[in-house]
Amino acid sequence: MPKQPMWLNVYGFVVLVLFLLGMYLGLVVSPPDASMGELIRMIYAHVAVAWVGFLAVVLAALHSMLFLWKANFKDDIRAVAHAEIALVFAGLTIASGMTWSKPTLGVFWDWDAKLTLTALLASLLVGYFIVRGLIDDPERRGRISAVVMIIVMASLPFNYMAAKWFRTLHPAKSYNVDATGLSSTMSPVFVKILLFNVVVAAMIYIYFFIQRNRIGQQEAELFEKETELDVKGDFIHV
Amino acid sequence: MFNFSQWGWVLFAWGQLIAVYIAYQVYLTWRLKRLEDK
Q1: Do residues B16 and A95 touch, judged by C-beta distance below 8 A?
Q2: What is the DSSP string of A151-180?
Q3: Set of chain B residues whose Cβ sits within 8 Å of the Cβ of A13
Q4: Over the stretch A67-114, which tens digit does the pLDDT of each residue have?
Q5: Cβ-nearest to B32 among A95, A99, A215
Q6: Closest C-alpha among A123, A118, A134, A132 to residue A79
Q7: Alpha-carbon distance A22 to A48, whole Å?
Q8: CA A46/CA A197 separation, integer angstroms
Q9: pTM score
């Protein structure tokens, strides 16, 4: 197994510095909110991981579709890498959301549309890995889990629009993306710091993905070698 | 006005992020190490 390349270590260091800068912007530079006070500083942690988690699910589903189309195992390995990090980010989204909800809304959890759909998303991601663990044949495992991942992605539009469509404890969107660009009801200073932290979360995601994808590829190569050895061994025994 | 209670929640939320990022990095390093040993 080759060691981690130098450029990845350098990238990791840059990401670490940017994360610390994002934290500084969120905890020191950002002013307190007029109604929420210091609690607004949680938006930079919660929203950044939530958006990047959604992105991870979309990318996992895209690679799953590619696997169904081309039957290239590299796509299956990439889909798994995206899915695993999506689960990490979905868990963080729920944990940081609950931490924000308690002091602002009075409760950690409520079974309303937005929160239930997010819990469903995390549960479906866990289900994806359970399904993979139950199937031994790599091709069958790849195809069935790819379908599961597409179902996971199908829940995203409902989750994204839940705060608008349903009565929910979760605040409505305070930003809008259309032909004129990004507009927001938030003060520009909050938006700038939020977007900075979203970019940093995406960079952390890329850093994890590169590592996880390399592990997946190496494991597949090792599996192939072991299978070849087994076959050769059988010939000797016969 | 500095609000200790609010800052406690804020630092708890950011602490979760740091803890999970470190834990996941440790997990990835462990898997890489396991592959190296094989």
Answers
A1: yes
A2: HHHHTHHHHHHHHHHS--SSPPPSEEEETT
A3: none
A4: 999 999 999 999 999 999 999 999 999 999 999 999 988 889 988 888
A5: A215
A6: A132
A7: 11
A8: 10
A9: 0.89
* Chain B stretch 5-24, residues whose beta carbon is closer than 8 A to a beta carbon of chain A: 5-7, 9-10, 12-14, 16-17, 20-21, 24
ipTM of the complex: 0.91
Smallest CA–CA distance, residue A210 to chain B, in Å, is 11
Q: How far is CA A123 from CA A64, A86, A94, in A?
A: 18, 12, 12
With beta carbons under 8 A apart, name residues in chain A contacting B5: 103
The answer to whether B32 contacts A91, with C-beta atoms less than 8 Å apart, is: no
Q: Is the dihedral angle over the CA atoms A44, A116, A57, A186 positive or is it negative?
A: negative
Q: A184 by DSSP, 3-state: which?
A: strand
Q: How is residue A60 written in tokens?
A: 């996992």
Nearest to A92 among B6, B20, B25 (CB): B20
**DSSP letter assigned to residue A215:** H
Which residues of chain A lie closer than 8 angstroms to B34, CB-CB? none
pLDDT of residue A2: 60
By Cβ distance, the residue of B6, B17, B36 closest to A103 is: B6
The SS3 assignment for A3 reads: coil
